[in-house]
Amino acid sequence: MSPDSQPLRHISDTALWTATYRARETERPNALFRDPFARRLAGERGETIRREMAAAVDNEWAFIVRTHLFDQAIRGRIEAGVRSVANLAAGLDARPYWMELPAELHWAEIDLPELLEYKAGVLEGEPPRCRLERVAVDLADRPARRAALDRIGRGLAITEGLIIYLEEEEVAELGRDLRAAGFEYWLLDLASPALVKMLQATTGRVTAAAGAPLKFGPRDGVKFFEPLGWTTLRVDSVFEAAMQLGRVPQELLAGGPPPEGPDGPVWSGAVLLGRG
């Protein structure tokens, strides 16, 4: 695939792509959430990417349900008293602008400078519903990342759509850094080895061409995080939630779940961890 023909030119293009999913969900009469800024943030480039990526695999339903599960978990932690949120690899997530949030809540968005600058420009003049801070950091730069986390470090850390691109040791380093910085909770999405393998043959081929292959799917699941000082508080299966919400595509229902192979079940979920 030539650079001119591939849908993603850089991994940050996934932020435009996923923004179109949020926009399409917002426009549904029975939307699970409503992000009125998503269409503007995605722009024409985002819609072009979505159309081109649709030929690889239709995973919009899973993304939307995962977003819904994250929304529920975030609200739950805030209702429980969390007053600081750090969203790592925040992309074009606009939750601080549309979720019902306490005005005193501190929400830090951590991502690449150019992505945060683009978002700030698109949302210029729009008031966030809480105390919003944007922190320009390349998360691959561990010293810079640790400095940012140590300064923010408390409350809830979110890594939505991030750790699947990391090696196991990189995830372990991140887990240790979050705990050392003082975060009480860590909200993440987790994929099984079988799902990672399946995705590597579809959307993963495109993200790999953009320099970000899919990697992380630990064989021991949530137990991977225990030696890092984290305990599992809640696990929500994306497929089970989609079934309850009536969002599983009919073709998937007709075919039944994929058979379990040597890599275990095809599974993904939203996981809430707490300090051990």
Structure notes:
It is a single chain. This protein is α/β, with parallel strands linked by helices and 276 residues long. It is built from eleven helices and seven strands. Helix 1 (13-26) packs across helix 2 (38-54). The N and C termini lie far apart (45 Å). The model has no long low-confidence stretch (mean pLDDT 92).
Q: Short summary of the structure?
A:
With 276 residues, the protein is α/β, with parallel strands linked by helices. Helices cover 43% and strands 16% of the residues.
The largest sheet has its strands arranged as 3-2-1-4-5-7-6
CATH architecture, by name, is 3-Layer(aba) Sandwich
Secondary-structure element series: HHHEHEHEHEHEHHEHHE
- Provide the β-strand percentage band: 15-25%
| Count of all domains | 1
Mean pLDDT: 92
Query: Helix count, per DSSP?
Result: 11
Number of strands: 7
What's the structural blueprint in terms of helices and strands?
Blueprint: H1 13-26, H2 38-54, H3 60-79, E1 84-88, H4 95-98, E2 106-111, H5 113-122, E3 131-136, H6 142-152, E4 156-159, H7 168-180, E5 185-191, H8 193-200, H9 203-209, E6 230-237, H10 238-245, H11 250-255, E7 268-275
Parallel strand pairs: 1-2, 1-4, 2-3, 4-5
Antiparallel strand pairs: 5-7, 6-7
